[in-house]
Amino acid sequence: MNAPAKTEDFAIKIPDGVYAETVLSVEHYTDHLFRFRMTRPAGFRFRSGEFAMIGLMVGEKPIYRAYSIASPAWDEELEFFSIKVPDGPLTSHLQAIKPGDTVLMRKKPTGTLVLDALTPGRRLYMFSTGTGIAPFASLIRDPDTYEKFEEVILTHTCRDVAELKYGFDLVDEIRNHEFLNEIVGDKLKHYATVTREDYPFQGRITTLIENGKLFADLGVPALDPEIDRGMICGSSAMLKDTKELLEKAGLTEGANNKPAEFVIERAFVG
Ligand SMILES: Cc1cc2nc3c(=O)[nH]c(=O)nc-3n(C[C@H](O)[C@H](O)[C@H](O)COP(=O)(O)OP(=O)(O)OC[C@H]3O[C@@H](n4cnc5c(N)ncnc54)[C@H](O)[C@@H]3O)c2cc1C
């Protein structure tokens, strides 16, 4: 494994349209998951929920992958929540980064998991599996989300309990944050489930929507297109199944140029 490069190692090679940022902190959650924070370029603007292409110089060549920006638009730093794919072209190197290392980022963020792509509603569901929680880590820390919605429900489903920790840390961070805690109040509900271990809340989110347990556990009525809005981020199969359930409930899919009742984004290609 090559050690990630420092900026001075390749300063003259950084291509146009790319920022070279400094890693500030790294936290490993499991053998498969970690988060890191890095400096935010002065001119870099994005909407909470968007993704950017981030990369590393591996040998002479940069390798880029799409990454949801997990920090909110107001944050002075950038945060990412990452998988570690064994032998993954990017993450086999990215998982070794340390404070002081350089991470590349292409200048133009994009994405559909943005508040602008939804029509007004009262309750916003964010359905995520695995690293699909990343765009919602941004949105649940953005005051705009709570200005637009009376209730925000973040669901996060993983195989094992240890994989849920990032989500619990996020909610704790909000609770301990002077201003955010006041803005969020009791509007945010975090619903975490696992599929492969004993845990009070178990099962795929699609099963829990279908059998109504999600709504019973949360004490909310079933999905209603007049009131509810949705954002989905997970594997291709999870997106397809969840999308079908939302459509069955009468919600229609929106996009940046055509806001509607729910939006989706793949958490990875595969
Ligand atoms: C819009 C978008 C946003 C993304 N945001 C994130 C993010 O915030 N965090 C993140 O870790 N990844 C994210 N990804 C996936 C990311 O782009 C890379 O695929 C991932 O970093 C692995 O890169 P790699 O080069 O090591 O392996 P790759 O060659 O890219 O992937 C190898 C295989 O690993 C599996 N895989 C890849 N990523 C994941 C994942 N996140 N969860 C489970 N299995 C995976 C897939 O089966 C894939 O075929 C996103 C992808 C897209 C399309």
From TrEMBL:
TM segment ranges: none
Gene3D superfamilies tied to this protein: Nucleotide-binding domain of ferredoxin-NADP reductase (FNR) module, Translation factors
Class in the EC hierarchy, top level: oxidoreductase
Pfam families from the UniProt entry: FAD_binding_6
This enzyme's EC code(s): 1.18.1.2
Domain FAD-binding FR-type: 16-116
Cofactor(s) required, per the database record: FAD
Keywords of the record: FAD, Flavoprotein, NADP, Oxidoreductase
Catalytic activity, as annotated: 2 reduced [2Fe-2S]-[ferredoxin] + NADP(+) + H(+) = 2 oxidized [2Fe-2S]-[ferredoxin] + NADPH
InterPro entries xref list: Cbr1-like_FAD-bd_dom, FAD-bd_FR_type, FNR_bac, FNR_nucleotide-bd, FNR_type-1, Riboflavin_synthase-like_b-brl
PANTHER family (alphabetical): FLAVODOXIN_FERREDOXIN--NADP REDUCTASE, OXIDOREDUCTASE FAD/NAD(P)-BINDING DOMAIN PROTEIN
The family this protein is said to belong to: Belongs to the ferredoxin--NADP reductase type 1 family.
Protein name: ferredoxin--NADP(+) reductase
Species the sequence originates in: Agrobacterium arsenijevicii
